[in-house]
Each structure stands twice: as structure tokens, then as C-alpha cells.
Amino acid sequence: MPAEERRRREALYRHGGAAWPVGAQAWRAAAAEVLARNHFDWIEGGAGEEWTLEANREAFKRWRLRPRMLAGNSSRDLGVDVLGTRCPAPFMLAPIGGQTVVHPEGELATARAAAAAEIPMVVSTAASHRVEDVAGALGDAPRWYQLYWVSDQDVTQSFLRRAVSVGCEAIVLTIDSPRLGWRDRDLRNAYNPHLEGHGIGQYTSDPVFRSRLARPPEEDERAAGAAMVKMFPNASLTWNHLAWLREQTRLPLLVKGVLTAEDARLARDTGMDGGIVSNHGARQLDGEVAALDALPEVRDELGPDATILVDSGIRRGTDIVKALALGADAVLVGRPYLYGLAVGGDAGVAQVLRALAEEVDLALGLVGAHGATSVDRSFVTEAPR
Ligand SMILES: Cc1cc2nc3c(=O)[nH]c(=O)nc-3n(C[C@H](O)[C@H](O)[C@H](O)COP(=O)(O)O)c2cc1C
């Protein structure tokens, strides 16, 4: 074992469990302890019966690794390049809005942790902090921007312009949320973070959005939240509209929320540079397919050269290796870093990211792979039902 790896492993065993939770379930439990019930439910909940939420995890459980022995892989290359963005490990931080719900510093704390690890962060349109401030916290670290195409196109265009001006390297258009899903937990708790001023920082700082308000958000935050909630649904959007988006920027464009070969084809044919196979962490349509189960059909449809990411249900390094095996170039990590944020601010996020990278490295090591890009379908098999 190379000295550097041995040093890291020894440190893990020496300090490991003492300071921080170990493993995704322990982080989740720790987050549940520190958060108010309605806040925890908001991050944790899925749509409806939460069948898809369960299915996301079941899919990872069902796919099993086929390790190859004596591979001579004493060091592994964890890094991947995704549309020109360098990732030191095969994951990025998923776009998650309203992070001040779990920690007062919200996206700023997450950005500091991402920057320290040089792991790219996808900044959400529904962030609580302005994209300019998140970019400041990121320093020189890589960042992408997740766009919600709201029903006011001038506001959408303004969001995009701002993202480009703070150095975002790619735009991720989320297409699975033309309206908000039916989320039992939030309805039960009567909880909508936007009405309490979370997740509206992009909007309240936007000159075009502000021009739509009767009174400035500083005077009436609730009305600004309500205006955001009203502007959010955009169910009239079609694939044909993507030509407009293509004209707005030369940056790589990805669509997030692809779950079928049909939509993968449409994304490619409308000039998108990549697709993210995702069911939004099962928060939108209950009963829809687990993201991991949709991944092989999307990869098969688009072929080996297309850029495809996946998220929804990733909790472990072994999950990431399975996703790579089933055709992902990289993955987005969602709830796990939110748990870290809730429990320990930027230090908590940093620990989650560090442990995850370590898990990926160990899983690659034990599965017999030489790096993140050398994992193919021969490394997984579906467990007999
Ligand atoms: C609390 C919360 C807020 C989210 N906000 C956004 C968002 O603003 N934009 C977006 O595209 N996806 C959003 N997502 C979805 C994530 O980007 C990602 O698809 C999801 O978290 C993956 O599922 P997992 O966390 O179970 O792995 C959010 C997810 C959660 C849990």
C-alpha cells in the first residue's frame, strides 16, 4: 500500500468515529437530531408514498459488484473530466436550494467545503444566497449553475447572465420540475421554505425579478417568496424552447431529469451537451423509475461518447462505483452533504466529501479497477429476484 494511502487510512482509524458520524445513515440520524422536524422532513421527504424514494436505494442494493482480483491496482486515478470541468473524484455537489433551512450559512458554507476539496459545486437557482456570493465563497474552484426556467423568460435570462458572469462553467437546466411534486410531509407540516425567506436569494437580488414586485423584498419578504412560488411553475415549456437557451450561451448545457431513452434522444437532438439521469431525489413524481435503473437505457441510447451523469439515492462510495459501471461519467451527491451541513457547517460538508472520496478509492481498489474511468458494465450484475 503506498505510504500516502496508508497515512490516510491510519488517520481515519485513529480519529474516525470520534469526531464525526461514520456512514450515510449515521449522518442522516445526526441531522435528524439537530434539525426541527419540519426542516428535516423538507430535506428528507419524497413525493407521495415515497415508493420512488425507496426504489432509489433498492436499485443500488439490487445491483451487485463483480470484483476482479489480483488487478495490481496499487494506486487508482479517481479523477474525471466532465465537459471540460476537472473533478478530483467522480462526483460533484448536486444543486440544492434553500440550504439556510439546515444551516444559517447555507450555500456559503457548502461552497467553502467544495472549494477546499476542489469538488465542483452546482449552484441552484433556488439557493438562499446570491450566486455572486456563492461564487465569492468558491474562490477559484469550479462551479456550474442549475437553472430553473421560470415562467417569466426575462427573469430566466437574467439568472443565466449572472451565472455566466461569475464564471459558471456549465448550465444545468432542470426539466423534471414544471411544477412542484405532491410532498406529503411538507403538506402535513404546512411547510414551504420559500415563504419563510429561504431559497429566494437569486430572485430577491435579481433586478428583473425586483421590477416585478409592488414592494421591495426588504419591505415585504413574504410577498417576494409568494411571487417566486408563483413564477416557478412553467408547465408550458417544451423541447422546442431549448433552441432559445442554446442561443443564449456557448457554455455546455445539460438537462437534469432525464429518465427515458426517448428524452435522452430529444436532449441530444435539441443540442444539449449532456444529460443528468435523475428523479430529483424522488421529490417530484412518486412511482417513477429509480434513476439508477434508467441509466443503462439512457447510456445505450446515446452511446459511449455522450456525457451522462446520474443522481438520486447515492450514499456510498460503492454506489458511485456501481453508477460508473452502469454508464455514468460522474455522479451528483445530494442529501449526504446536506446532512453534513446540518451537523457541522462547512466542516461537516468537508468531512462528508472526504469520506466519500475515500470510500470511492477503497471501492475501486477492492473491485480491481485502476481508476474511475476504467469501470465498465462487467463490474456489476443484477442480483437474482
Ligand atoms: C432539499 C432538496 C432541495 C433540492 N433543490 C434542488 C434545486 O434547487 N434544483 C435542482 O435541480 N434539484 C434540487 N434537488 C435535487 C438534487 O439536485 C438531487 O437531484 C437529489 O438530491 C438527488 O437525490 P439524493 O439526495 O437522494 O441523492 C433538491 C434536493 C433536495 C433534497
Can you give a write-up of this model?
With 385 residues, this protein is of the alpha/beta class. The protein has 16 helices and twelve strands. The strands form three sheets. Strands 4-11-10-9-8-7-6-5 form an eight-stranded parallel sheet. β6, α7 and β7 form a beta-alpha-beta unit. The longest helix has 33 residues, at 335-367. It is globular. The two termini are 38 Å apart. The mean pLDDT is 96. The chain binds flavin mononucleotide.
| Overall strand count | 12
How are strands sequenced across the largest beta sheet?
Answer: 4-11-10-9-8-7-6-5
What is the CA-CA span between the terminal residues?
38 Å
Structural class: alpha/beta
Biggest β-sheet, characterized?
8 strands, parallel
Helix-residue proportion:
40-55%
Bound molecules: flavin mononucleotide
Percent strand = 5-15%
H-E string: HHHHEEEEHEHEHEHHHHHEHEHEHEHE
Residue windows where pLDDT falls under 50 for at least 5 positions: none
Taken from the alpha-carbon principal axes, the silhouette is globular
Tally of individual helices: 16
The overall pLDDT average reads: 96
The radius of gyration is 20 Å
